[in-house]
Amino acid sequence: MTTRLAGDGRDTMVTEHSSRKYQLIDAVLATTVGGVTGAAYGGIIGMVMAPLRRAQYARDCSALGAAGFGIKSIMTEIRGKDDLTNHIVSGSGAGLALSFVKQGVKAQPAHALFTAAGFAVLTGTVYKVNETITSRNAREALYTETRAMLSKLGLQKYEKNFKKGHLTDPTLPLLTDRELQEMNIPPGARLLILDHIKRYNKMVNRK
């Protein structure tokens, strides 16, 4: 019994060690990819600049990418999720890295903090905008069949009624005149919708 427990303990330690090892590898890879991507982006965008400015721009973008990707990877591994906090922290870290790369050890604390705060706000805002767009697209995907049905029947103006009542695609086969009436859809439109659903269900069952 004791030997088995000891073995279990060693297995747990090995698993934890392997997990930390892979977390470190992920962070290093993310930092490297961020740096290379940033440098490439800076080099391409900087093609319209003078050679010296182009090199400086590529260096700045490389620092931004490496710090941002690396910190975000570490935060995600530590916290187990990717959220607004991760993006704000990675953005502030990227801002600090940029300030250091541009001004070296002589960088003024005020400049470094201002740059860090600016990038934190920027990355946080971008994250929230993307989150909003993704959420909106996910909601719209729930009404794909509904939208197609209403368009075929020439009843597109009632799409908002379906959304107001949360009558998503999975609810279509369950709809009755009562639900449609509660959503303030007039009798004629209700008849067309229910007839369409009835025909569609028969066609599906026939298959």
From TrEMBL:
Signal peptide: none annotated. InterPro entries: SAM, SAM/pointed_sf, TIM22. It holds the Pfam family SAM_1. It is a multi-pass membrane protein. Keywords: Membrane, Transmembrane, Transmembrane helix. The chain crosses the membrane at residues 27-50. CDD domains: SAM_superfamily. Residues 138-203 form the SAM domain. SMART domains: SAM (SM00454). The keyword NADP does not apply. The keyword DNA damage does not apply. PANTHER family: MITOCHONDRIAL IMPORT INNER MEMBRANE TRANSLOCASE SUBUNIT TIM22. This is SAM domain-containing protein. It comes from Eruca vesicaria subsp. sativa.
